């Protein structure tokens, strides 16, 4: 089946006018499947890291949210060991007026402001709450170890 | 129809498996919860009732390669079992001898494989096959 | 043999007195619960109340048509008082869970707040934005096709009509949402009112929307619950406060024949309270693999070890090979059953108190669990077999009818007996979950005695029902079965009554804290 006009336009715009620190490239053999790279935001424990993600637009998109996952290991209270992300706009707060670009910007913002009160990775969240400095240090180590291109 | 990529398909299967599938007679999960590529899985099959397998619990390992689900996974029994589709030295399931592996399509999944194997155990030809003693493993 | 008691005030009121066709004995049980009733709980007429036993509650079956009528009456009333349209009145009622008094009170205080919370805009001119911006571009499909007549709520976010339709249809049809359908714009909290929904979707989706609204009414109102039986469109009303569901097991019977718990909507689980059922189910889900594993060895004759397949509901087994008679559940000799020595239902704690070894302890705890679990599942299994047997017997009877002058009606007593067996086995099942969590005391001995008496009676009845029917013995068998069925029913009453009173009086001491899952 032909790709909806919306997906084609979104892809074109992502190529023509990429958001700062974010790139998304569609697979040639599956135009709903994107390789994503997000640069760790400055002033965050992930600064200097290059994080790989994958994104998939299901059949119901944009009525249903895209599926997004980290492929690079990351120490973050809202991202679990398998790279799954706890972010409201990817679940119940999804709106069909959101786009790939806005989703990826939100993921980038999540890196700048971790939210240990709404955790996905419980042990990391615990660490973050009990000793934020130590947790940030671990996050920096992980960034150096796993997210350096 | 949108073609779901390997990783998102496996993620769906993982989440389904975590919730529990069907009547609980088959189950599966990642063998390493940290494995971001989700390649290696453990499966269990509870032997079907009114057969020689009744009340036995069989352990399996399943490997989903990079071409999954375009290509079927490779499946091996860890627990010893006597079935025509299972190599009696290694425990490997012969893909030519199990219907769902032979006629694989990308809508199938780990659940399909395990329930197909369980059906195989209960088939009239196999239900009374003599079995190795319970609890022994392939090496 | 359901007996519906028709009361003179409000339609038909059914008591859960449904199994008791001989409800002449001990009819006056004092219902002096010490929990508080909700404000709007109306005391039923005393005469009616006198009929209720400790394990019964007052309730009313409400068919779908009555629910719709009640809903529309409340709407009309509020609409009249506040001078609103019916649609707006029901939107307001919804956010107050159909509590009219509370709505009216709050509305008088600050109508603006309430209207906004319900997404109601009184002036229809304000409800919708009329003109899309000149540079309209739909943020959903990225189309700028102005022929598609864009649609927007008062927030001024416009999307094309086709996208709106798809959005609302998905919410209603796929997600079953009928409240809180917001403007599709991200972060916008303007609620789509009924009028906007009707304007955007096709009639089939509107129909679904209406059905969802009706269903939502029942889940909003605390005193209503849907009958969980598939295809049953009745609800049941029970005005007991939910906070008392740790002290009473609110079992109700729908006119469709389904018996369920008002507290948790699961099938009848008397005498166990909802919280205990929840704990038990979780435990069984966690431990069932182990349990399955261990149950393997219970399939051999305890005398000659030949394999035994259970083919009837009765637990009295006779080995075809060696004629050894034993109990399927405990594998003990049957001669000890049904007499004074019967103790199959009681877990014998044979470990001495100074056994400290952790392994032995956990093994003992597993054995203790398996003791109760096996008996729990066995009664379920047996009940199914009893049913099968009835179906078989019914066939036999049909055959006999063709060859003799016996009529089908004469086998009805078997159906009745199987019904008694089924409900008693259900009760027995849950007595094992109940006993598993019960701390040992003098009270528990009494409970276990009741359990044993019921179990012995059930097995005796089950055995009678299994006897082959013939023209010669039918009259005799019928007398015996009916007699036994009355007795079983009586034993079940005694057990439920004692368990329910104990619960209401706080007489039982449980080994785990029993929560109240119904409390909202």
From TrEMBL, chain A:
The gene is UBC13_2. InterPro entries: UBC (IPR000608), UBQ-conjugating_AS (IPR023313), UBQ-conjugating_enzyme/RWD (IPR016135). The active site is at 86 (glycyl thioester intermediate). SMART domains: UBCc. Belongs to the ubiquitin-conjugating enzyme family. It comes from the Eukaryota. One of its GO terms (molecular function) is ubiquitin conjugating enzyme activity. It holds the Pfam family UQ_con. Its EC number is 2.3.2.23. It is an enzyme of class 2 (transferase). This is E2 ubiquitin-conjugating enzyme. Residues 2-148 form the UBC core domain. Keywords: ATP-binding, Nucleotide-binding, Transferase, Ubl conjugation pathway.
TrEMBL record, chain B:
Residues 5-139 form the UBC core domain. It holds the Pfam family UQ_con. Coiled coil: none annotated. The keyword Isomerase does not apply. It comes from the Eukaryota. Keywords: Ubl conjugation pathway. InterPro entries: UBC (IPR000608), UBQ-conjugating_enzyme/RWD (IPR016135). SMART domains: UBCc (SM00212). This is E2 ubiquitin-conjugating protein mms2.
UniProtKB/TrEMBL annotation, chain C:
Keywords: Metal-binding, Repeat, Transferase, Ubl conjugation pathway, Zinc, Zinc-finger. Its EC number is 2.3.2.31. Pfam families: Ariadne, IBR, IBR_1, UBA_ARI1. Residues 134-348, 138-184 form the RING-type domain. It catalyses: [E2 ubiquitin-conjugating enzyme]-S-ubiquitinyl-L-cysteine + [acceptor protein]-L-lysine = [E2 ubiquitin-conjugating enzyme]-L-cysteine + [acceptor protein]-N(6)-ubiquitinyl-L-lysine. One of its GO terms (biological process) is protein ubiquitination. InterPro entries: Ariadne, ARIH1-like_UBL, E3_UB_ligase_RBR, IBR_dom, TRIAD_supradom, Znf_RING, Znf_RING/FYVE/PHD, Znf_RING_CS. It is an enzyme of class 2 (transferase). GO terms for molecular function: ubiquitin protein ligase activity; zinc ion binding. This is RBR-type E3 ubiquitin transferase. It comes from Mortierella alpina. The lineage of its organism: Eukaryota, Fungi, Fungi incertae sedis, Mucoromycota, Mortierellomycotina.
């Amino acid at each position: 089946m032909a790709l909806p006009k919306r997906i084609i336009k979104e892809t074109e715009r992502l190529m023509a006018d990429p958001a700062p620190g974010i790139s998304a490239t569609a697979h040639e053999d599956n135009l709903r499947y994107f390789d994503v790279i997000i640069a760790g935001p400055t002033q965050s424990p992930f600064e200097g890291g290059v994080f790989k993600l994958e994104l998939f637009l299901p059949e119901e998109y944009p009525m249903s949210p895209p599926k997004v996952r980290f492929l690079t290991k990351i120490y973050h209270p809202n991202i679990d060991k398998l790279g799954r992300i706890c972010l409201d706009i990817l679940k119940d707060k999804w709106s069909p007026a959101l786009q790939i670009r806005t989703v990826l910007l939100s993921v980038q913002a999540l890196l700048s402001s971790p939210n240990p009160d709404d955790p996905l990775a419980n042990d990391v969240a615990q660490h973050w709450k009990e000793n934020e400095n130590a947790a940030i240090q671990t996050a920096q180590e992980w960034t150096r170890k796993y997210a350096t291109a | 129809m949108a073609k779901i990529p390997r990783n998102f398909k496996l993620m769906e299967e993982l989440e389904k498996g975590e919730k529990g599938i069907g009547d609980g007679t088959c189950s599966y999960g990642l063998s390493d919860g940290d494995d971001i590529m989700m390649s290696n899985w453990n499966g269990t099959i509870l032997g079907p009732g009114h057969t020689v397998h009744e009340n036995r619990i069989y352990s399996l390992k399943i490997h989903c390669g990079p071409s999954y689900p375009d290509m079927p996974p490779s499946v091996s029994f860890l627990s010893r079992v006597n079935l025509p589709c299972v190599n009696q030295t290694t425990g490997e399931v012969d893909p030519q001898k199990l219907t769902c592996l032979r006629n694989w399509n990308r809508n199938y999944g780990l659940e399909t494989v395990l329930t197909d194997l369980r059906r195989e155990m209960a088939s009239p030809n196999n239900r009374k096959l003599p079995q190795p003693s319970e609890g022994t493993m392939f090496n | 043999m359901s007996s519906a008691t028709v009361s003179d005030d409000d339609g038909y009121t059914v008591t859960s007195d449904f199994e008791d066709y001989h409800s002449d004995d001990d009819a006056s049980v004092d219902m002096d619960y010490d929990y508080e009733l909700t404000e709007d709980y109306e005391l039923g007429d005393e005469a009616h109340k006198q009929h209720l036993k400790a394990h019964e509650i007052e309730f009313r079956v409400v068919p779908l048509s009555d629910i719709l009528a009640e809903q529309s009456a409340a709407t009309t009333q509020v609409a009249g008082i506040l001078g609103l349209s019916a649609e707006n009145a029901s939107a307001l009622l919804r956010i107050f869970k159909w509590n009219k008094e509370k709505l009216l009170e709050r509305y008088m205080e600050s109508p603006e707040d309430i209207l906004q919370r319900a997404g109601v805009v009184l002036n229809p001119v304000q409800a919708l934005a009329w003109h899309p911006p000149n540079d309209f571009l739909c943020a959903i499909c990225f189309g700028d096709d102005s022929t598609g007549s864009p649609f927007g709520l008062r927030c001024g976010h416009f999307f094309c009509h086709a996208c709106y339709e798809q959005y609302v249809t998905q919410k209603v049809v796929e997600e079953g949402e009928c409240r809180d359908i917001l403007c599709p714009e991200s972060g916008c909290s303007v609620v789509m009112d009924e009028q906007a929904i009707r304007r955007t979707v096709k009639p089939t989706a509107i129909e679904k929307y209406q059905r969802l609204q009706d269903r939502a009414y029942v889940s909003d109102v605390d005193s209503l619950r849907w009958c969980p039986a598939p295809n049953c469109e009745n609800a049941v009303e029970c005005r007991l406060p939910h906070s008392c569901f740790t002290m009473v097991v609110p079992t109700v019977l729908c006119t469709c024949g389904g018996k369920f718990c008002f507290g948790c909507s699961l099938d009848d689980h008397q005498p166990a309270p909802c919280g205990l059922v929840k704990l038990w189910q979780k435990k069984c889900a966690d431990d069932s693999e182990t349990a399955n594993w261990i149950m393997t060895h219970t399939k051999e004759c305890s005398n000659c070890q030949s394999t035994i397949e259970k083919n009837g509901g009765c637990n009295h087994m006779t080995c075809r090979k060696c004629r050894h008679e034993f109990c399927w559940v405990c594998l003990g000799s049957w001669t000890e059953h049904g007499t004074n020595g019967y103790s199959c239902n009681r877990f014998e704690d044979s470990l001495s108190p100074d056994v400290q070894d952790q392994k032995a302890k956990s093994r003992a705890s597993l054995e203790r669990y398996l003791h109760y679990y096996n008996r729990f599942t066995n009664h379920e299994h047996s009940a199914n077999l009893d049913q099968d047997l009835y179906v078989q017997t019914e066939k036999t009877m049909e055959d006999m009818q063709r060859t003799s002058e016996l009529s089908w009606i004469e086998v009805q007593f078997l159906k009745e007996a199987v019904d008694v067996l089924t409900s008693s086995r259900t009760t027995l099942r849950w007595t094992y979950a109940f006993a598993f969590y019960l701390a040992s005391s003098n009270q528990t001995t009494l409970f276990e005695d009741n359990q044993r008496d019921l179990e012995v009676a059930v097995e005796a009845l089950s055995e009678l029902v299994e006897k082959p029917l013939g023209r010669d013995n039918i009259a005799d068998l019928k007398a015996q079965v009916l007699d036994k069925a009355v007795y079983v029913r009586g034993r079940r009453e005694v057990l439920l009554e004692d368990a329910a009173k104990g619960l209401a009086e706080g007489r039982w001491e449980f080994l785990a804290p029993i929560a109240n899952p119904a409390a909202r």
